[in-house]
TrEMBL record:
<dbReference type="InterPro" id="IPR011006">
    <property type="entry name" value="CheY-like_superfamily"/>
</dbReference>
<dbReference type="GO" id="GO:0000160">
    <property type="term" value="P:phosphorelay signal transduction system"/>
</dbReference>
<protein>
    <submittedName>
        <fullName>Response regulator</fullName>
    </submittedName>
</protein>
<feature type="modified residue" description="4-aspartylphosphate">
    <location>
        <position position="54"/>
    </location>
</feature>
<dbReference type="InterPro" id="IPR001789">
    <property type="entry name" value="Sig_transdc_resp-reg_receiver"/>
</dbReference>
<feature type="domain" description="Response regulatory">
    <location>
        <begin position="5"/>
        <end position="121"/>
    </location>
</feature>
<keyword id="KW-0597">Phosphoprotein</keyword>
<dbReference type="InterPro" id="IPR050595">
    <property type="entry name" value="Bact_response_regulator"/>
</dbReference>
<dbReference type="Pfam" id="PF00072">
    <property type="entry name" value="Response_reg"/>
</dbReference>
Length: 123
């Protein structure tokens, strides 16, 4: 069986490591990116089953990334979880409008994140 591929996009190296360890230990294949622009460059024809993205990042923020990725036919239906310190309802609404499927506020519990991943991951 092919492992499910998840991209983790966050400007914090330590957060990418924590999320990556949790996902890999649950059997997922993980690709990491440091911002939205880096993530777009790493899509290069690969299929991802899910993306986990921070909101506030340099170069290209998470909501701009979601808008961009939803314009790409190959990735239009890939579910995206926003993992962020941002808890304002206006930002959540903006993320949802852009196409994000879930909003998880940091600090998070790895088991909570893995449950969200399991619910949303594409077959």
């Amino acid at each position: 069986m092919t492992r499910k591929r998840i991209m983790v996009i966050d400007d914090s190296v330590s957060l990418r490591e924590v999320v990556g360890i949790s996902l890999r230990s649950a059997g997922y294949e993980v690709t990491e990116a440091c911002d939205g622009q880096d993530a777009l460059s790493k899509l290069n024809g690969s299929r991802f089953h899910l993306m986990i993205c921070d909101v506030n990042m340099p170069v290209m923020d998470g909501i701009s990334f979601v808008r961009e990725v939803k314009q790409l036919p190959r990735h239009r239906f890939v579910p995206i979880i926003m993992l962020t310190t941002e808890s304002r309802e206006s930002r959540k609404a903006e993320g949802q409008l852009a196409g994000a499927k879930a909003w998880v506020v940091k600090p998070f519990r790895p088991d909570q994140m893995l449950q969200a991943v399991a619910k949303l991951i594409l077959p």
